[in-house]
Amino acid sequence: MAEEMFQKDETLRMRKRLIGQSCRLFFSDDPVKIVRARGQYLYDENGVQYLDCISNVQHVGHCHPAVTQAAAAQMDLLNANTRFLHDNIVRYADRLAATLPKKLSVFYFVNSGSEANDLALRLARQYTGNKDVIVLDHAYHGHLSSLIDISPYKFRKLEGQKDWVHVAPLADTYRGLYRHDHPDPAQAYADTVKNLIDDMHSKGRKISSFFVESLPSVGGQIIFPRGYFTKVAEYVRAAGGVFVADEIQTGFGRVGSHYWAFQLQGEDFCPDIVTMGKPMGNGHPLACVVTTEEIAGAFTANGVEYFNTFGGNPVSCAIGLAVLDVIEKEDLRGNAVRVGNHLKDLLKQLQIKHPIIGDVRGAGLFVGFELVKDRVDLTPATEEAALLIRRMKEKYICLSTDGPWENVVKFKPPMCFRMEDAERVTEEIDLVLREIQDASLQK
Ligand SMILES: Cc1ncc(COP(=O)(O)O)c(C=O)c1O
């Protein structure tokens, strides 16, 4: 297959003319044109290799042969309407169920994280009979209208907050309301949710769901205090609501020690609804909602069919099964623990040398470090973070920033990321941070 149809300049010109400009490119000042990829490496039109530290969607590695072969073989055999009986969907649901707590046993397959969260919203409302939703500040749950409404990250820049949406503070123990020095941040942050529920009740409103990313990503690679979810779930369920864990960024072993990031909260914790997406199909649009029999039962009882043209088709499920096989066969969770810990250790060593690194945090291969102008006021070093990303790109390493002030440098690489990759990227970060420091001293 031809790698390029147009010269890079022409592709860019056509893109500007034909594609909506709100669909932004990485490195928009000087975009990279990628024409092929393998494992954790991307290749541009001149064959230059880039180390990919950000493609969490290509979970088991770009163009993994086991995944592409499974897709091609099933595509060649059958890809029929999802209303015909087929083995792939049930084999896949059964394999996914084995990774989840027993209570989560009924699956709905969809095509994107947004579709999954929109369906979760419907399930929660149908089951509880309530409308209101509590979300965390800075959360992002998807691009559909229903999800913009529950994503402060988006609605704050648009029409604002709907009366049925309630925003709790982000349980961030680095720069949030309650920090590492608080004796019980999990309880303190859970109490903020309880207060919102009480406030809602005083206005005659009722909660359908508490929606949360198991580890907030656009919020800045946040790791919640352990026990927070258990306490919140207690308050939410007592008020008649359900707990929805958005695992769209964090599922499928990204955190290494567990298959699902909500499991970091403790063995006793189980959400009522879990949504998954991005890494599920290694780039193929595949996403899912899993819930309890009771919640699914209430959804069925309304008598309205749920039909999704592409969700759970034989090809998507063949791809999903291949992804699960690779995670197991290549011990990618073990790799996430080993390489993620090494990466965090290396970044912590850099933190000792570079005062601009205020915090290093993460679990498995979901890692972030936060740049600050000073370690007391935690003033975000946003320009420095942008400069670091630009300089790393010049060194053929793709990184990006997140967080409300775009000062958190995030790592969510394909799970085949290696020790050598962690060493190379941290050596280069060290050099660039030294340059940034030297430049600021000369000012
Ligand atoms: C936490 C989270 N939820 C939901 C979504 C929406 O997923 P999609 O873009 O597949 O619709 C995203 C996408 O970035 C996400 O990060």
Automatic annotation (TrEMBL):
One of its GO terms (molecular function) is lyase activity. Its cofactor is pyridoxal 5'-phosphate. The keyword Lyase applies. SUPFAM superfamilies: PLP-dependent transferases. InterPro entries: Aminotrans_3, Aminotrans_3_PPA_site, PyrdxlP-dep_Trfase, PyrdxlP-dep_Trfase_major, PyrdxlP-dep_Trfase_small. Keywords: Lyase, Pyridoxal phosphate. It comes from the Eukaryota. The keyword Lyase applies. Belongs to the class-III pyridoxal-phosphate-dependent aminotransferase family. This is 5-phosphohydroxy-L-lysine phospho-lyase. It comes from Astyanax mexicanus (Blind cave fish). The lineage of its organism: Eukaryota, Metazoa, Chordata, Craniata, Vertebrata.
